[in-house]
Amino acid sequence: MSEQGVTAPKGFVAAGLAAGIKASGNKDMALVVNEGPEFTATGVFTRNRIVASPVKLSRKALASGELKAVVYNAGNANACNGAQGDADAATVVTHAAEKLGMDFGDVAACSTGIIGEPLPVAKLLAGVDGLVENLGDNGHEAAESIMTTDTVSKEAIVKGEGWSIGAMGKGVGMMAPSLATMLVCLTTDASVTAEVAHEALEKACAVTFNTLDIDGSTSTNDTVILMANGASGITPSVEDFEAAVLSACASIADQLQADAEGVTKRVRITVSGTTTDEQALNAARTLGRDNLFKCAMFGSDPNWGRVLAAVGMADADMDPDNISVYFNDHAVCLKSGGTPDAREVDLSGADIDVKVDLGTGGPGTAFVRTTDLSYAYVEINSAYST
Amino acid sequence: MSEQGVTAPKGFVAAGLAAGIKASGNKDMALVVNEGPEFTATGVFTRNRIVASPVKLSRKALASGELKAVVYNAGNANACNGAQGDADAATVVTHAAEKLGMDFGDVAACSTGIIGEPLPVAKLLAGVDGLVENLGDNGHEAAESIMTTDTVSKEAIVKGEGWSIGAMGKGVGMMAPSLATMLVCLTTDASVTAEVAHEALEKACAVTFNTLDIDGSTSTNDTVILMANGASGITPSVEDFEAAVLSACASIADQLQADAEGVTKRVRITVSGTTTDEQALNAARTLGRDNLFKCAMFGSDPNWGRVLAAVGMADADMDPDNISVYFNDHAVCLKSGGTPDAREVDLSGADIDVKVDLGTGGPGTAFVRTTDLSYAYVEINSAYST
Q: Fewer CB within 10 Å: N-end or C-end of chain B?
């Protein structure tokens, strides 16, 4: 894109560079700085109980509802490194805060890369020096610098009336496991309270990033941070702000799914006809994680029996004799039995839409996105750390 | 094996033949008959809520605690065929009961094969005729006739003092999805009550078949049936009987895991250090189903970070800073951090032992068996129904 993502809103500067963390020599560190006047911030973190050191640090930093900068590195997750990992993350953030003239608690950190390797602290400290020197309208460079196995950088800009939201993101579960961390940074020059920011981010994540369920694996490092500085002087309505945050998150989520290495099919699953939305989500996730179903999608095989076998194990109310399944809006199973032309549906395209009605007549619905299970997925994920 | 499995105990006869259900022309129907004098029987069925027609029928037949015969077919699961499927299963069983001079409720049915294809009833009825004519000491032929993608038949014999248990089994999750059904038949000439039989079978299944967790998928047709006829005139102690049932189930479970198509590694996972056994099982299953972990096993890659990332998502008490991981008894992660020689452990063999201690000091432990995720798994499972 011609416009810069996270530096599109007023009052945000960024930088990206190669600090030597990646063996490839590619860019691997980024810095995003909020120049104010306000420093409102909120974050959403991984649900995994094994969390990386930068996640612990950033949670604490965001507890105040304010933040001035985020330091990113790619190539090393700084996860499962024990007390040393916590100390290393703090050392990098302390150095960044000093260089930026900020307090320790003003700076968050996000890391992505291999788990369990010591952070190369000296490289990161030198990287911070270079980043601080190069701060400017470099949103695109920052987005490139947080990539791991991503093939393209991901950015988004959403414009309000006199204000805007910028965003960058990287990664997603199916691409390369321990590198699979999803990191997203959202910036806005709107003036909003921490409560409004947090509510908007939670709502947007719930229907965008949280519906991306590629392999059931959840990174130790997943982090989405939103910073708002009010530099536009405008306080949008809560509705407008929430819509813009949602739009930015949706764009990044689409880009993440579209850049899935090892994936040949993008699968959208909608479940309805159960008692609650939560039950529908259970069923949709169970189906989206079922390897037999995912292999069938890879083979463009309308094997709807696997859909029933998968949802039958889900924690959701259902009428086992009244389940319907549609592939690309073609009915392949009605009242839990196959339709005469079920095998004739064409699943050869890259996008497959799957709708499942669990048959109780209840109002619960849910939507998740997943992918197929391909040879390339196995190839990419079978020889990573060594 | 030279000895016949299900016909090894006194008073059981069996037959197997090709009825034309499989396109290959291989044997695809079997019949196991209990000649008495007692007809004690019990069963354990799939936990899936989408159940095949023969499962519904067999559950009803076993409600009385007695059974005289089981009709098996391979190549068609008779699942998700609606009311027609139920009627077709009943038609086959009605015919078998007539030919055998039994009542309808004396005969159970087990099917394995593709889901959602109408049962070729005429072929099965003719098959029943042939089976009844050929009943005899044909346990091995029966075991061959229930195979789908199994490469070898599975049988077991356990001898008590003057009594014995015979067994046959087929299938397992990783082999070929909709064909993945696990069917097991156990016969014994011991004289036991339905309660003793059921308790013994439940206990044995819990630590054998239920610890086989290959891809998290559960068939619509899984059935384990135990028939006891007292023909030996001996009533073993409950302890001896339970030990023998466990031994027979363990043997079949080992054979199922060993015959896993598309699998290059057999992985044994033990989880300890959490509050309850159930929590430990949650963690072991979560790890055993994690595709990133399974791909690492395929690549002989000691990427222990994936173990922590996986168990961190499990519903189990843990100390996130005190988790230990051992590959083949080599410590690769202690106190949630990597050991200096973690990458040096040799995982090139076909068997990999993984031990995870969740670090709470609690007494909960669990064990599951799984496999790697290989190219062949994807190949076998991506083009099945068409």
A: C
